[in-house]
Amino acid sequence: MRVLVVEDQAELADSVARVLRREGMAVDVVYDGEGALERASVVDYDVVVLDRDLPTVHGDEVCGALMAEPARTRVLMLTASGTIADRVEGLSLGADDYLPKPFAYAELVARIRAVARRAQPAVPPVLVRGDLRLDPAQRIATRAGQRLALTPKEFSVLEYLLAARGRVVSAEELLERVWDEATDPFTTTVKATINRLRPKLGSPPVIETVPRGGYRI
């Protein structure tokens, strides 16, 4: 899952990003509304965690701009105000969910996963292909009932390929969706991760390489 965290309190933003990365998400961080619009114009995020009270461009305007895009990003809005009227107003802007500050990180993670599942086509909460089963929320992957010992990136690659439901996924797409902006776009990290993942999945082979196309399960 590719997530953009937009929060002007740098310490909070960076703390949220660390938590989400531990959950296997690829996370970019910006600290104002202008930066959010710039990032969202070049990256197709699954979820934007958007603080409502932002400098340069207000969070309401950022939310409106995201809602106007054809391939709509899901928005989880944050605000220091927890009144019912403020929540209703935030949701009326088109946000998918609304979380008042302060919040528990466990709840934030759960809400991000919940709004991401509303994408079209919807992704089931547990991904299954043959005897391969992956639970994103519990961070557990098994094959034939045996738990797989995967690194966070291996887990995320497997999750993305399973969610593609047999569609061929290019290395470029995997790099964009599973890794964040800190990754060198010319790196061979996708191929290296796939090569480490394959033997961990056992036999018969699960991941197919499609020449000049990419990978699929």
Automatic annotation (TrEMBL):
Domain OmpR/PhoB-type residue range list: 124-217
Annotated signal sequence range: none
Keyword terms of this UniProt record: DNA-binding, Phosphoprotein
CDD domains on file: trans_reg_C
DNA-binding region range list: 124-217
Listed Pfam families: Response_reg (PF00072), Trans_reg_C (PF00486)
Stated name of the protein: Response regulator transcription factor
Record organism: Streptomyces atriruber
Higher taxonomy: Bacteria, Bacillati, Actinomycetota, Actinomycetes, Kitasatosporales
